[in-house]
Design goal:
There is one protein chain. The protein is an alpha+beta fold. The protein has 6 helices and 8 strands. The strands form 2 sheets. A 4-stranded antiparallel beta sheet has the order 1-2-3-4. Strands 7-6-5-8 form a 4-stranded mixed beta sheet. Strand 2 and strand 3 form a beta hairpin. The longest helix has 31 residues. The radius of gyration is 22 Å and the shape is elongated. The termini are far apart.
Length: 230
């Protein structure tokens, strides 16, 4: 009998065989340095991207409405509980689908920062890699979300990426001028510091790069001064 090798499909592995290395479609040049690589936090992504909290809150309101409606109709406590229990399979199924979607998005996403660019490999069924050289990044900033946060990238000039191609790795509701986003990072402040330092060093080495800002939040969202990168 031919031996069969068993693979743990839940363990993070290099599942994209066409990549030169995980998260990168091509091997880095010898003079380019990898500074950071990571992926979104699945729990944060479930709450921020697919709005699991809002969905659960909506279902809780439905359960409350069902209980109050039953009580006003003169139903017994047992009848009210049975009626609410009948709604649970739908609630669990919908919540489970959202959790599964967030887990798949987190598992199949890899963010990479080098000393020259930001690379975003995204996509559950069809993987797409977005290569964003520092010369195309006009500004960057991070915004806190609970225990994590997002890093928002504003693209320079006429550089555009379709909103649907990026979702959910894009700043919400910015449809006309999309802003790629390293989303739901558990260590967003540390990653922002790495990116800020890389941008400053790249700008110092190549004076042709546009002036850019790296701050604790984007100027539009924060409403406070954004320090300029040196």
């Amino acid at each position: 009998m031919k031996a069969v090798n068993l693979v743990n499909v839940l363990a993070p592995t290099h599942e994209h065989e066409f990549e030169a290395s995980p998260g990168l479609p091509q091997a880095l040049p010898v003079d380019e340095q990898l500074l950071w690589q990571g992926r979104p936090d699945a729990r944060l992504l479930a709450r921020q991207a697919v709005h699991l909290d809002l969905v659960i809150g909506y279902f809780l309101l439905l359960l409350g409405w069902r209980a109050v409606s039953g009580w006003s109709d003169g139903q017994s406590l047992r009848e009210i509980l049975v009626g609410c229990a009948g709604m649970m399979p739908m609630i669990l199924l919908a919540s489970g689908l959202l959790v599964g979607m967030a887990w798949l998005m987190a598992r199949t996403t890899v963010y990479t920062i080098t000393d020259r660019r930001v690379v975003m490999r995204v996509g559950i069924v069809l993987s797409i890699s977005f290569n964003l050289p520092f010369s195309q990044i006009e500004s960057a900033g991070w915004r806190a979300h609970g225990r994590g946060g997002d890093i928002v990238l504003s693209l320079a000039g006429s550089t555009r990426i379709a909103y649907l191609h990026l979702w959910p790795h894009v700043r919400p509701w910015h449809l006309r001028r999309t802003q790629p986003m390293l989303r739901a990072l558990a260590d967003a402040p540390a990653v922002a510091a790495v990116l800020a330092q890389a941008l400053r060093e790249a700008q110092a080495a190549q004076h042709g790069l546009p002036q850019r800002a790296v701050a604790t939040a984007t100027a539009a969202a924060a409403g406070r001064a954004v320090p300029q990168a040196a």
